[in-house]
Structure formats: structure tokens, C-alpha cells
Design goal:
35% strand, Double Stranded RNA Binding Domain, 249 residues, GMP Synthetase, Chain A, domain 3, 4 helices, 3-stranded antiparallel β-sheet, 2 domains, alpha+beta, globular
């Protein structure tokens, strides 16, 4: 049957927003993906931030091919927007080694990868001597976790302070005593925050180093500035750390 006027085939395979974003996030050069649509129905928009590994035209073709091959979705290329950055991106963490077959594995103890760490609220207070104090609260599993940081009251330093406060909240989540288990000994450090102007829109890029024992993972996240810079920085920091953190809960 021919594609509908909405740009999607009439018999798409089952899919979700998260599965579509994970699929497109695996394409060459893609740093971040945001899919707008209804799970199991129509994809209205696809927004991507990429490196210079692939041209925007090639990235659009890759998106169309991936969605068609995996979900039988035919999407109008005009609904796909691609922003590029020349900034180097930290590599994704290496896959964890296969589990030891001699160690018992309980399904109910596996990471809850279907539950994202959610941003709840933040607060920024101006202190004396040109300093600001930022507090960021996140939620996971019905509980809230807060991180606080202070920094210079300057535009760039303010954004870095918000990113670090977000990392402290995630550390609080990871290193806490959850369900009677011991903390995971995770340390998250900010590598940098950058604002990128592309395709008449602003994007915030955040790079993070995640340290656990002898493992050091480079993480990166991005978020479009749709409301305020503060919120975009927090969401980009969460995107950089969310999947890595949930794999350790």
C-alpha cells in the first residue's frame, strides 16, 4: 500500500519513541536524537545533532533507510532536521564484559533501563562576592535526589555550575543506599559545556567523565534551547549520563 499523506506507511511495525531514538542514535556521526511523534503511529519530526563524519544529506538518507528497514516507516525527508558540530565528541563507554556464568543472575535485579532519570526542578541563588549557588533535583524510582554547587556569577561559569549540580544529584542517586545495597562509588566530573548555533537554533553540548573504580567513560549529551539555557544545560547533562547511570542501578 502506498505511503499516507502524513509520510508514514499504513502498516508500520511496533515501535516506541525511545526505541526509535536509540536506533537513530546508532547511525554514523549522530551525537543526539529527538523524535517527535506518537509511538506505534506517525513520526512528525526528527531532530539530530551530528559530527562532520557524514553530510546532512547522507544522514537524512540513513535515517530514512533505518526507519524503513526496522519499522517499515516511510518518513518525509522534510521532517528531518540535521545540525552539525565540529567539536570532538567523547567516545561511548565500551560494552560491559559478558556475565560470569558461575555467578547466579536474578532477572528482578537487572537494571531498570525502561525508567529514565527525570528532571524535577532547579534553583539558582545569587550570593555575595559575585557567586551563585545552584541546586538541581532529579527523580528516579519515585524518589528525589538533589545536587548543589557554587560558582562564579558569570554567563559561562553559571552554566557549568548548573551542569555540575546536576552531576551531584546523579551521584547522590548512584551512591546512595538503595534497597539496602551499598553505594556504587561513582564520580562524575564535568569536561565542558558549549553552546552551538546551527540551523537557526541553539544547542547545548555537555561532555562528562564518569569514573567508577578503574573504569573511566567519556559521555556526551545535547539539548536544544527551547525554553531557557538553564534548562537546556540540565537536560543535556542528563542525556549524557542517563543511560550510563541507569545501567549501574
Amino acid at each position: 500500500m502506498a505511503a499516507s499523506s502524513e509520510g508514514v506507511s499504513s502498516k508500520p511495525a511496533d515501535w516506541t519513541i525511545q526505541s526509535a531514538e536509540e536506533l537513530l542514535g546508532s547511525l554514523p556521526g549522530v551525537i543526539s536524537v529527538r523524535v517527535v511523534g506518537r509511538p506505534g503511529g506517525r513520526i512528525d519530526e526528527v531532530h539530530l545533532l551530528t559530527t562532520e563524519e557524514a553530510t546532512p544529506k547522507q544522514t537524512v538518507r540513513n535515517v530514512e533507510s533505518a526507519l524503513k528497514a526496522h519499522y517499515h516507516l516511510e518518513i518525509d525527508h522534510r521532517t528531518i532536521s540535521v545540525a552539525r558540530t565540529s567539536e570532538p565528541v567523547k567516545p561511548e563507554p565500551k560494552p560491559a564484559p559478558p556475565p560470569d556464568p558461575t555467578v547466579p543472575f536474578l532477572l528482578e535485579d537487572s537494571p531498570r533501563l525502561d525508567t529514565r532519570i527525570l528532571f524535577v526542578r532547579h534553583q539558582v541563588e545569587t550570593e555575595r562576592s559575585h557567586r551563585v549557588k545552584a541546586a538541581v533535583t532529579v527523580e528516579w524510582g519515585g524518589s528525589e535526589f538533589q545536587g548543589q554547587e557554587t560558582g562564579a556569577d558569570l554567563p559561562r561559569a553559571r552554566l557549568e555550575t548548573l551542569a555540575r549540580a546536576t552531576l551531584r544529584a546523579i551521584e547522590d542517586l548512584l551512591n546512595g543506599d538503595h534497597d539496602g545495597s551499598f553505594g556504587s562509588g561513582v564520580s562524575l566530573t564535568l569536561d565542558g559545556v558549549k553552546i552551538v548555533d546551527a540551523f537557526d537554533a541553539n544547542y547545548v553540548l555537555v561532555a562528562v567523565n564518569a569514573i567508577q573504580g578503574r573504569e573511566i567513560a567519556g559521555l556526551a549529551g545535547a539539548s536544544a534551547v527551547e525554553d531557557t539555557l538553564d534548562r537546556a544545560v540540565i537536560l543535556a547533562t542528563l542525556q549524557a549520563t542517563d543511560r550510563w547511570a541507569r545501567g549501574r542501578l
